[in-house]
Amino acid sequence: MVQVYSDITRIRNASWAFTTRRVTRDTAKILLPLEGKPQPGDLILATVDFLGQHPGLQLPNGRRKQLFPGDEIVVAYGNRYASNQFEAVIPETFGPCHLVAGGGIASRAVSWHVSMKKGPTLITPIGVLGDLNNKRMNLSDFALSPLNEIKTRLPTAIAVVGTGMDSGKTQSCAFLVRGLISAGLRVAYAKITGTGAGGDTWLLTDAGAYPVLDFTDAGMATTYMITIEQLELLLMTLMGHIANENVDAMVLEIADGVMQQETAALLKSPVFASLVAGIVMASQDSMGASAGIHFLKHYAKPPVLAISGIISAAPLQVREAEIALNLPVYDREGLATPENAMSILAGAQRHMEAQRTKQSAALNMKQFEDLKENGKQAH
Asked: Which one of 76, 115, 328, 357 is separated from 221 by 20 to 30 angstroms, measured CA to CA?
Protein backbone atom coordinates (compact mmCIF):
# COMPACT_ATOMS: atom_id res chain seq x y z
CA MET A 1 0.00 0.00 0.00
CA VAL A 2 2.89 2.35 0.82
CA GLN A 3 4.44 1.58 -2.59
CA VAL A 4 1.16 2.26 -4.39
CA TYR A 5 0.76 5.59 -2.58
CA SER A 6 4.35 6.51 -3.43
CA ASP A 7 3.80 5.64 -7.11
CA ILE A 8 0.58 7.65 -7.33
CA THR A 9 2.23 10.69 -5.76
CA ARG A 10 5.20 10.44 -8.08
CA ILE A 11 3.00 10.07 -11.18
CA ARG A 12 0.81 13.01 -10.20
CA ASN A 13 3.78 15.25 -9.51
CA ALA A 14 5.38 14.55 -12.87
CA SER A 15 4.96 16.80 -15.92
CA TRP A 16 2.61 15.16 -18.43
CA ALA A 17 3.31 15.74 -22.12
CA PHE A 18 0.91 16.94 -24.81
CA THR A 19 0.66 13.42 -26.24
CA THR A 20 -1.05 12.31 -23.02
CA ARG A 21 -3.79 14.95 -23.21
CA ARG A 22 -6.64 12.44 -23.52
CA VAL A 23 -5.39 10.24 -20.70
CA THR A 24 -7.41 10.24 -17.49
CA ARG A 25 -4.61 10.76 -14.98
CA ASP A 26 -6.47 9.24 -12.05
CA THR A 27 -6.41 5.94 -13.95
CA ALA A 28 -2.66 5.66 -13.34
CA LYS A 29 -2.27 3.80 -10.03
CA ILE A 30 1.10 2.11 -10.12
CA LEU A 31 4.49 2.00 -11.81
CA LEU A 32 4.95 -1.40 -13.43
CA PRO A 33 8.40 -3.02 -13.82
CA LEU A 34 10.34 -2.27 -16.99
CA GLU A 35 9.85 -5.70 -18.54
CA GLY A 36 9.32 -6.78 -22.14
CA LYS A 37 9.33 -4.55 -25.22
CA PRO A 38 7.77 -1.07 -25.43
CA GLN A 39 4.76 -0.78 -27.73
CA PRO A 40 3.59 2.31 -29.64
CA GLY A 41 1.56 4.48 -27.28
CA ASP A 42 2.81 2.90 -24.03
CA LEU A 43 2.99 5.47 -21.24
CA ILE A 44 6.06 5.75 -19.04
CA LEU A 45 7.38 7.86 -16.22
CA ALA A 46 10.91 8.90 -17.12
CA THR A 47 13.64 11.10 -15.70
CA VAL A 48 15.48 13.70 -17.77
CA ASP A 49 19.22 13.00 -17.88
CA PHE A 50 20.68 15.42 -20.42
CA LEU A 51 19.20 18.30 -22.39
CA GLY A 52 19.75 18.13 -26.12
CA GLN A 53 17.77 19.58 -29.01
CA HIS A 54 14.50 19.46 -27.04
CA PRO A 55 15.04 21.36 -23.78
CA GLY A 56 11.31 21.86 -23.22
CA LEU A 57 8.15 19.79 -22.98
CA GLN A 58 4.76 20.80 -24.40
CA LEU A 59 2.07 20.35 -21.77
CA PRO A 60 -1.60 19.56 -22.50
CA ASN A 61 -2.62 23.08 -21.42
CA GLY A 62 -0.50 24.68 -24.14
CA ARG A 63 2.39 25.79 -21.96
CA ARG A 64 5.96 24.84 -22.82
CA LYS A 65 7.77 23.68 -19.70
CA GLN A 66 11.50 24.24 -19.47
CA LEU A 67 13.15 20.95 -18.55
CA PHE A 68 16.02 20.42 -16.14
CA PRO A 69 18.11 17.30 -15.53
CA GLY A 70 16.36 15.27 -12.87
CA ASP A 71 12.82 16.29 -13.90
CA GLU A 72 10.28 13.48 -14.08
CA ILE A 73 7.95 13.42 -17.10
CA VAL A 74 5.16 11.23 -18.48
CA VAL A 75 5.57 10.55 -22.19
CA ALA A 76 4.49 7.98 -24.80
CA TYR A 77 6.53 5.69 -27.02
CA GLY A 78 6.43 6.28 -30.76
CA ASN A 79 8.46 6.15 -33.96
CA ARG A 80 9.35 9.50 -35.52
CA TYR A 81 9.92 10.72 -39.06
CA ALA A 82 11.06 14.33 -39.36
CA SER A 83 13.46 15.03 -42.22
CA ASN A 84 14.54 18.36 -40.73
CA GLN A 85 14.91 16.92 -37.23
CA PHE A 86 15.03 13.29 -36.10
CA GLU A 87 14.30 9.84 -37.39
CA ALA A 88 13.62 7.56 -34.42
CA VAL A 89 12.33 4.07 -33.74
CA ILE A 90 10.88 2.49 -30.63
CA PRO A 91 13.70 0.67 -28.81
CA GLU A 92 13.68 -3.06 -28.12
CA THR A 93 13.89 -2.55 -24.34
CA PHE A 94 12.82 -0.08 -21.65
CA GLY A 95 16.39 1.12 -21.19
CA PRO A 96 17.66 4.71 -21.51
CA CYS A 97 16.42 6.38 -24.72
CA HIS A 98 15.64 9.79 -26.17
CA LEU A 99 12.98 12.48 -26.05
CA VAL A 100 12.70 13.03 -29.81
CA ALA A 101 9.84 15.54 -29.90
CA GLY A 102 8.74 18.36 -27.64
CA GLY A 103 5.20 16.94 -27.62
CA GLY A 104 6.44 14.00 -25.56
CA ILE A 105 7.76 11.08 -27.65
CA ALA A 106 10.08 8.48 -26.13
CA SER A 107 12.12 6.69 -28.77
CA ARG A 108 15.64 5.93 -30.01
CA ALA A 109 17.05 8.46 -32.46
CA VAL A 110 18.83 6.73 -35.34
CA SER A 111 19.60 9.75 -37.56
CA TRP A 112 19.12 13.49 -37.56
CA HIS A 113 19.51 16.61 -39.66
CA VAL A 114 22.91 18.29 -39.52
CA SER A 115 21.30 21.35 -37.91
CA MET A 116 20.41 19.27 -34.83
CA LYS A 117 23.83 20.04 -33.39
CA LYS A 118 22.94 19.27 -29.77
CA GLY A 119 21.66 15.80 -30.53
CA PRO A 120 18.61 14.31 -28.80
CA THR A 121 17.60 14.87 -25.18
CA LEU A 122 18.40 11.81 -23.06
CA ILE A 123 15.84 10.22 -20.72
CA THR A 124 15.69 7.08 -18.58
CA PRO A 125 12.40 5.24 -17.99
CA ILE A 126 11.49 4.73 -14.33
CA GLY A 127 8.37 2.63 -14.78
CA VAL A 128 5.44 1.87 -17.06
CA LEU A 129 2.16 3.43 -15.99
CA GLY A 130 -0.31 0.80 -14.80
CA ASP A 131 -4.01 0.94 -13.94
CA LEU A 132 -5.95 -0.49 -10.99
CA ASN A 133 -5.63 -3.99 -12.52
CA ASN A 134 -1.87 -3.66 -13.02
CA LYS A 135 -2.40 -3.42 -16.78
CA ARG A 136 -0.06 -1.34 -18.91
CA MET A 137 -1.61 1.99 -19.87
CA ASN A 138 -1.55 3.00 -23.52
CA LEU A 139 -2.83 6.04 -25.45
CA SER A 140 -5.21 3.74 -27.33
CA ASP A 141 -7.10 3.09 -24.07
CA PHE A 142 -8.35 6.69 -24.16
CA ALA A 143 -8.94 7.12 -27.90
CA LEU A 144 -12.04 8.10 -29.82
CA SER A 145 -14.08 5.07 -30.83
CA PRO A 146 -12.80 3.76 -34.19
CA LEU A 147 -15.14 4.12 -37.17
CA ASN A 148 -14.92 1.96 -40.28
CA GLU A 149 -17.84 3.72 -41.96
CA ILE A 150 -19.38 7.18 -41.90
CA LYS A 151 -23.16 7.14 -41.56
CA THR A 152 -23.85 10.87 -41.40
CA ARG A 153 -23.50 13.46 -44.16
CA LEU A 154 -19.85 14.00 -44.96
CA PRO A 155 -18.87 17.67 -45.29
CA THR A 156 -16.56 18.65 -48.12
CA ALA A 157 -12.99 17.77 -47.19
CA ILE A 158 -9.92 19.58 -48.52
CA ALA A 159 -6.50 18.04 -47.85
CA VAL A 160 -3.37 20.17 -47.53
CA VAL A 161 -0.22 18.27 -48.47
CA GLY A 162 3.34 19.43 -48.97
CA THR A 163 6.57 18.82 -50.79
CA GLY A 164 8.28 18.19 -47.46
CA MET A 165 8.56 19.17 -43.84
CA ASP A 166 8.33 22.92 -43.16
CA SER A 167 6.79 23.73 -46.55
CA GLY A 168 3.97 25.77 -45.01
CA LYS A 169 1.19 23.19 -44.64
CA THR A 170 -0.09 24.17 -41.21
CA GLN A 171 -0.10 27.89 -41.95
CA SER A 172 -1.97 27.14 -45.19
CA CYS A 173 -4.54 25.13 -43.22
CA ALA A 174 -5.02 27.90 -40.68
CA PHE A 175 -5.54 30.68 -43.23
CA LEU A 176 -7.77 28.52 -45.45
CA VAL A 177 -9.90 27.86 -42.37
CA ARG A 178 -10.04 31.61 -41.73
CA GLY A 179 -11.19 32.22 -45.29
CA LEU A 180 -13.96 29.64 -45.10
CA ILE A 181 -15.11 30.94 -41.71
CA SER A 182 -15.14 34.48 -43.12
CA ALA A 183 -17.51 33.17 -45.78
CA GLY A 184 -19.89 32.12 -43.02
CA LEU A 185 -19.09 28.40 -42.85
CA ARG A 186 -18.53 26.10 -39.88
CA VAL A 187 -15.13 24.55 -40.44
CA ALA A 188 -13.28 21.67 -38.74
CA TYR A 189 -9.64 20.61 -38.90
CA ALA A 190 -7.88 17.29 -38.50
CA LYS A 191 -4.20 16.43 -38.71
CA ILE A 192 -4.13 12.90 -40.08
CA THR A 193 -0.44 11.99 -39.86
CA GLY A 194 2.69 13.20 -38.10
CA THR A 195 4.30 13.33 -34.67
CA GLY A 196 2.29 14.24 -31.57
CA ALA A 197 2.79 17.93 -30.76
CA GLY A 198 0.57 20.79 -29.74
CA GLY A 199 1.59 23.62 -32.06
CA ASP A 200 -0.58 22.68 -35.02
CA THR A 201 -3.76 21.96 -33.07
CA TRP A 202 -3.36 25.11 -30.98
CA LEU A 203 -2.88 27.26 -34.10
CA LEU A 204 -5.96 25.81 -35.79
CA THR A 205 -7.99 26.31 -32.62
CA ASP A 206 -6.89 29.95 -32.61
CA ALA A 207 -7.87 30.19 -36.28
CA GLY A 208 -11.43 29.26 -35.32
CA ALA A 209 -11.68 25.64 -36.48
CA TYR A 210 -14.00 23.40 -34.46
CA PRO A 211 -13.63 20.61 -33.77
CA VAL A 212 -9.84 20.30 -33.97
CA LEU A 213 -8.57 16.71 -33.94
CA ASP A 214 -5.39 14.83 -34.70
CA PHE A 215 -4.09 11.27 -34.66
CA THR A 216 -3.42 11.43 -30.92
CA ASP A 217 -7.20 11.62 -30.49
CA ALA A 218 -7.27 8.24 -32.21
CA GLY A 219 -4.74 6.79 -29.75
CA MET A 220 -1.51 7.22 -31.71
CA ALA A 221 1.54 9.12 -30.48
CA THR A 222 2.88 9.20 -34.06
CA THR A 223 1.94 7.65 -37.40
CA TYR A 224 5.42 6.72 -38.69
CA MET A 225 5.62 3.01 -39.63
CA ILE A 226 1.91 2.24 -39.21
CA THR A 227 0.17 0.15 -41.89
CA ILE A 228 -2.04 1.43 -44.68
CA GLU A 229 -4.99 -0.32 -43.02
CA GLN A 230 -4.32 1.63 -39.83
CA LEU A 231 -4.00 4.84 -41.84
CA GLU A 232 -7.32 4.30 -43.58
CA LEU A 233 -9.08 3.51 -40.30
CA LEU A 234 -7.48 6.60 -38.75
CA LEU A 235 -8.70 8.81 -41.61
CA MET A 236 -12.19 7.34 -41.43
CA THR A 237 -12.32 7.70 -37.64
CA LEU A 238 -11.29 11.36 -37.51
CA MET A 239 -13.50 12.36 -40.44
CA GLY A 240 -16.43 10.37 -39.05
CA HIS A 241 -16.27 12.05 -35.66
CA ILE A 242 -16.02 15.46 -37.34
CA ALA A 243 -19.02 14.66 -39.55
CA ASN A 244 -21.07 14.09 -36.40
CA GLU A 245 -20.45 17.73 -35.41
CA ASN A 246 -22.56 19.07 -38.30
CA VAL A 247 -19.87 21.24 -39.92
CA ASP A 248 -19.90 22.61 -43.48
CA ALA A 249 -16.32 21.81 -44.45
CA MET A 250 -13.17 20.25 -43.06
CA VAL A 251 -9.51 20.93 -43.72
CA LEU A 252 -7.18 17.94 -43.36
CA GLU A 253 -3.42 18.16 -42.94
CA ILE A 254 -1.17 15.35 -44.16
CA ALA A 255 2.31 15.57 -42.65
CA ASP A 256 5.74 15.65 -44.32
CA GLY A 257 6.10 15.39 -48.10
CA VAL A 258 4.12 13.48 -50.70
CA MET A 259 6.96 10.95 -51.06
CA GLN A 260 7.12 10.08 -47.35
CA GLN A 261 6.03 6.45 -47.09
CA GLU A 262 2.81 6.84 -45.06
CA THR A 263 1.79 10.01 -46.92
CA ALA A 264 2.34 8.37 -50.32
CA ALA A 265 0.40 5.26 -49.29
CA LEU A 266 -2.53 7.34 -48.03
CA LEU A 267 -2.66 9.53 -51.15
CA LYS A 268 -2.83 6.39 -53.34
CA SER A 269 -5.57 4.84 -51.20
CA PRO A 270 -9.08 4.39 -52.62
CA VAL A 271 -10.42 5.27 -49.17
CA PHE A 272 -8.68 8.65 -49.38
CA ALA A 273 -10.06 9.13 -52.90
CA SER A 274 -13.60 8.42 -51.73
CA LEU A 275 -13.50 10.84 -48.80
CA VAL A 276 -11.36 13.79 -49.90
CA ALA A 277 -12.70 16.24 -52.48
CA GLY A 278 -9.65 18.34 -53.32
CA ILE A 279 -6.03 19.10 -52.50
CA VAL A 280 -3.97 22.22 -51.80
CA MET A 281 -0.24 21.75 -52.37
CA ALA A 282 2.16 23.61 -50.06
CA SER A 283 5.62 23.99 -51.57
CA GLN A 284 8.91 25.76 -50.96
CA ASP A 285 9.60 26.53 -54.64
CA SER A 286 8.21 26.16 -58.16
CA MET A 287 10.18 23.01 -59.01
CA GLY A 288 8.96 21.32 -55.85
CA ALA A 289 5.39 22.34 -56.65
CA SER A 290 5.73 20.94 -60.17
CA ALA A 291 7.15 17.62 -58.98
CA GLY A 292 4.59 17.32 -56.20
CA ILE A 293 1.63 18.06 -58.44
CA HIS A 294 2.80 15.63 -61.11
CA PHE A 295 3.09 12.98 -58.39
CA LEU A 296 -0.44 13.73 -57.21
CA LYS A 297 -1.89 13.69 -60.73
CA HIS A 298 -0.34 10.27 -61.28
CA TYR A 299 -1.30 8.66 -57.96
CA ALA A 300 -4.10 10.60 -56.25
CA LYS A 301 -7.70 10.94 -57.45
CA PRO A 302 -8.73 14.29 -55.88
CA PRO A 303 -7.68 17.30 -57.99
CA VAL A 304 -5.05 19.83 -56.94
CA LEU A 305 -6.95 23.12 -56.66
CA ALA A 306 -4.27 25.59 -55.55
CA ILE A 307 -0.65 26.04 -54.49
CA SER A 308 0.43 27.72 -51.26
CA GLY A 309 3.18 27.63 -48.67
CA ILE A 310 6.72 29.06 -48.54
CA ILE A 311 6.74 29.55 -52.32
CA SER A 312 4.29 32.45 -51.94
CA ALA A 313 7.03 34.61 -50.36
CA ALA A 314 8.95 34.71 -53.68
CA PRO A 315 7.13 36.52 -56.52
CA LEU A 316 9.41 35.03 -59.18
CA GLN A 317 8.76 31.49 -57.92
CA VAL A 318 5.04 32.23 -57.88
CA ARG A 319 5.17 33.42 -61.48
CA GLU A 320 7.06 30.32 -62.59
CA ALA A 321 4.58 28.02 -60.88
CA GLU A 322 1.49 29.77 -62.20
CA ILE A 323 2.79 29.67 -65.79
CA ALA A 324 4.02 26.07 -65.64
CA LEU A 325 1.12 24.54 -63.71
CA ASN A 326 -1.86 26.76 -64.57
CA LEU A 327 -2.93 26.89 -60.94
CA PRO A 328 -3.40 29.84 -58.58
CA VAL A 329 -0.70 30.41 -55.96
CA TYR A 330 -2.02 31.94 -52.74
CA ASP A 331 -0.11 33.45 -49.86
CA ARG A 332 -1.58 33.23 -46.37
CA GLU A 333 -3.61 36.41 -46.72
CA GLY A 334 -4.91 35.22 -50.08
CA LEU A 335 -6.14 31.95 -48.59
CA ALA A 336 -7.90 33.90 -45.84
CA THR A 337 -10.13 35.84 -48.22
CA PRO A 338 -13.67 34.44 -48.54
CA GLU A 339 -13.50 34.64 -52.35
CA ASN A 340 -10.37 32.50 -52.72
CA ALA A 341 -11.31 30.07 -49.98
CA MET A 342 -14.76 29.53 -51.48
CA SER A 343 -13.24 29.12 -54.95
CA ILE A 344 -11.13 26.25 -53.61
CA LEU A 345 -14.14 24.75 -51.86
CA ALA A 346 -16.26 25.06 -55.00
CA GLY A 347 -13.63 23.19 -57.02
CA ALA A 348 -13.65 20.41 -54.45
CA GLN A 349 -17.44 20.22 -54.49
CA ARG A 350 -17.52 20.04 -58.30
CA HIS A 351 -15.13 17.10 -58.17
CA MET A 352 -17.26 15.21 -55.66
CA GLU A 353 -20.42 15.89 -57.66
CA ALA A 354 -18.72 14.58 -60.80
CA GLN A 355 -17.65 11.47 -58.89
CA ARG A 356 -21.23 10.88 -57.71
CA THR A 357 -22.51 11.27 -61.28
CA LYS A 358 -19.98 8.72 -62.54
CA GLN A 359 -20.89 6.28 -59.77
CA SER A 360 -24.60 6.75 -60.47
CA ALA A 361 -24.05 6.21 -64.21
CA ALA A 362 -22.00 3.09 -63.54
CA LEU A 363 -24.70 1.77 -61.20
CA ASN A 364 -27.44 2.46 -63.74
CA MET A 365 -25.45 0.72 -66.46
CA LYS A 366 -24.94 -2.30 -64.22
CA GLN A 367 -28.65 -2.37 -63.41
CA PHE A 368 -29.43 -2.17 -67.16
CA GLU A 369 -27.05 -5.03 -67.92
CA ASP A 370 -28.57 -7.09 -65.10
CA LEU A 371 -32.06 -6.48 -66.51
CA LYS A 372 -30.92 -7.59 -69.96
CA GLU A 373 -29.31 -10.70 -68.52
CA ASN A 374 -32.45 -11.54 -66.51
CA GLY A 375 -34.52 -11.09 -69.65
CA LYS A 376 -32.37 -13.52 -71.59
CA GLN A 377 -32.66 -16.08 -68.82
CA ALA A 378 -36.46 -15.67 -68.76
CA HIS A 379 -36.66 -16.56 -72.45
From this structure: 115
With contact defined as beta carbons under 8 Å apart, do 180 and 345 qualify? yes
**Does residue 218 share a domain with residue 110?**
no
Structural contact between residues 190 and 239, judged by C-beta atoms closer than 8 angstroms: yes
- For 75, 106, 115, the CA distances from 40, given in Å and listed in that order, are 11, 10, 27
Residue 86, domain extent: 2-140
- For residue 4, which phi and psi values (nearest 5 degrees)? -60, -45
> Contact 122/204 with Cβ under 8 angstroms?
no
pTM exceeds 0.90 for this model: yes
Say if strands 86-89 and 43-50 run parallel, antiparallel, or are unpaired: unpaired
- Residue 228 burial (CB count, 10 A): 15
Q: How far apart are CA 219 and CA 210, in angstroms?
A: 20
The mean pLDDT of the chain is: 94
In a shared domain, residues 201 and 87: no
